[in-house]
Amino acid sequence: MGLDGWRVMDATVRYIGSEHFTIADAKRGDIGNTAEQYARAFFEQMPFHSITVAPYMGEDSVKPFLKTEGKWAIVLGLTSNAGAADFELQKLAGTDRFLYEEVMEKTAGWGSPNNLMFVVGATQAAQFANIRKITPEHFYLVPGVGAQGGSLRDISQIAMIKDAGLLVNASRAIQYASSGPDFLLKKQPKWREITRPKCRRICPPQEGESLNFGRLFNVLLILKFDTNGSPHGPVYQPGLFSVR
User: 97-114: per-residue pLDDT in tens?
Assistant: First the structure.
């Protein structure tokens, strides 16, 4: 969509409002002065609460996203795609340690659980117990539930902490619930199919429950970016998460 896509994104995040936690799934990662401008674009020019960040250019590419009060950097930790095996799941020479472990442990020291989260794919359930040892207090953005086959039950049993610690994203399974005029009728049953039978303590809130950041999240906006850096895709509405 090019420039039109940026205009739509800006209008959409402003329409949603600050009471909903918004994520720009932009996966930015560049040298420090460029990262500073990206941070300004998403946190000042556009009122996003958080942005996904790639850490492989080092500290100066991540730190600019950690400077703004009340904003979050969501750093790629162990992703849900098959390509995670190419680098993230490679062992460091002479050790029994995966590259992603080194990256997550080092990155966690650049911020705190109050301004830094990690992306950890639901398809990596075998690694979640180890990841929680490395970052015991951080929240995780968890893609891969639904279309990619990740299990919400498995992840919640392994990785939940007292404040939940998980933001679970289901995109395609809901987005493509139907291509017809009955989409609104089919997306809600699909969402409940993904969450309700599998969750223990993370469930859609009951009527009358109030929004309490840190205990209840409404992840309303996760916008994807194409290879040219232009936003595309619809607004995803995975639903409300509360801790019980």
Answer: 999 999 999 999 999 999
Residues 6+ apart with CB under 8 A from 125: 150, 151, 154, 155, 158
- Phi, psi torsion values for 32, nearest 5 degrees: -50, -50
* Angle between helices 99-108 and 125-134 in degrees, nearest 10: 40
Q: Which of 140, 132, 145 is nearest to 76 (CA)?
A: 140
Domain segments of the chain as ranges: 3-243
Segments of the chain with pLDDT less than 50: 196-227, 229-244
Return d(Cα 122, Cα 190) in angstroms, integer.
Answer: 18
* Catalytic residue status for 27: yes
Q: What is the pTM of this model?
A: 0.74
Helical ranges in the chain per DSSP H: 3-16, 32-40, 59-62, 99-108, 125-134, 152-159, 172-175, 183-195
Residue 184 CA to residue 131 CA, distance in Å, equals 36
The DSSP letter of residue 17 is -
Terminal CA-CA length for the chain: 41
What gap in Å lies between CA 46 and CA 31, rounded to an integer?
21
Q: Distance between CA 212 and CA 214 in Å, rounded?
A: 6
Classify domain 3-243 at the CATH superfamily level. Aldolase class I (3.20.20.70)
Determine whether 17 is exposed, middle or buried from the number of CB atoms within 10 Å of its CB (0-12, 13-18, 19+): exposed
114, 63 in Cβ contact below 8 A?
Answer: no
